[in-house]
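re: that chain from earlier
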Amino acid sequence: MASTKAPAGTGVHGPGRAAIGARTLRQDRWWLAPLSTFVVFSAFIVYATWRAFANANYYAEPYLSPFYSPCLGDCVKGSSDFGQPFGWFPLSAALIILIFPLGFRMTCYYYRKSYYRAFWLSPPACAVAEPHTKYTGETRLPLILNNLHRYFWYAAIVVGFVLSFDVVISFKEADGGHVGLGTLILLVNVVFIWLYTLSCHSCRHAVGGRLRHFSKHPVRYKAWTWVSKLNAHHAKFAWYSLFSVAIADLYVYLLANGTISETRFF
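^ sequence. v structure.
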């Protein structure tokens, strides 16, 4: 980890830096990337917060919103496939489970780069000076919570299995099989969720880390190679899954409140 405090006279304000009055000499639209990240990520946070506290319109049989899965609180009939051990919880049932997938996403190594640039402006872009005079790293609140990422990854694995179970349930119905647009949306979402989860740097370390000789662990080496290939696309999977989980929740919401009707294939 980098030094917690930058020595006096170093960094972007140090004497070793070129005496340039302008913040940057870049002529391109370098601000587009951090601005886009700020707008999209902020919109997702606002939407997810609203849906989490709404505690309504999250179940349209056989579909359960991924924001409320597994529904362990005081949930509507039919939505609790794993019981209601937190039925006494006075607030929205989504608040019981959302802390884990959101914690995993907020502490993600890729997202750190994104929100450091978009929210902390540290720095906002390459070759663009940041406004901060010192660097404290991830040793203080709130950034110290990023060090919990590996533990959130373990929880994300469990959530991935639960969402996969929801997809299986979405194919079933009392009178036989069922395939609707919601089934396909939940399926696409869980695929992106798994790709995002398994391409994580923590997954790569858990699979092949701490090994001195790959030749003595051929199975783990093969898995590590596969995860490493996924890891190269981790940023894309992060954004794909962000949109897919919001779309899945929105579809269930619109079904549950009667705004739209289910499109069924058989």
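The two ends are 55 Å apart (CA to CA).
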